[in-house]
């Protein structure tokens, strides 16, 4: 009999705690939307995951739109491999 009572208390208690946590989460989201924190967080995520444009890549590599693929690959290889061999003296 005592085991059944304890089991019922645990089930009821976990239900109450679960509903309270859900309500608190909803309230937190509502407050975040009111203050603009949620919008700011979304903007920060978008900024962090922004990919580089082709124009930015060309500017970093120092090539123009008329550059051939071979020229671009050569510059990229040089810039990519140069730090690895900067300690080697010829």
Automatic annotation (TrEMBL):
InterPro entries assigned: J_dom_sf (IPR036869), Tim16 (IPR005341)
Q: Which UniProt keywords apply?
A: Membrane, Mitochondrion, Mitochondrion inner membrane, Protein transport, Translocation, Transport
* Pfam families reported in the protein's UniProt record: Pam16
What membrane topology was assigned to this protein in its record?
A: Peripheral membrane protein
Question: Which compartments is it annotated to reside in?
Answer: Mitochondrion inner membrane
Cellular component per GO, a single term: TIM23 mitochondrial import inner membrane translocase complex
Would I find Protein transport among this entry's keywords? yes
> Which GO annotations describe the biological process of this protein?
protein import into mitochondrial matrix
Q: What is its main location?
A: mitochondrion
Keyword rRNA-binding applies: no
Q: Which domain of life is it from?
A: Eukaryota
Of which family is this protein a member? Belongs to the TIM16/PAM16 family.
- Which PANTHER family does the record match to this protein? MITOCHONDRIA ASSOCIATED GRANULOCYTE MACROPHAGE CSF SIGNALING MOLECULE (PTHR12388), MITOCHONDRIAL IMPORT INNER MEMBRANE TRANSLOCASE SUBUNIT TIM16 (PTHR12388:SF0)
Protein name as annotated: Mitochondrial import inner membrane translocase subunit TIM16
Q: What's the source species' lineage?
A: Eukaryota, Viridiplantae, Streptophyta, Embryophyta, Tracheophyta
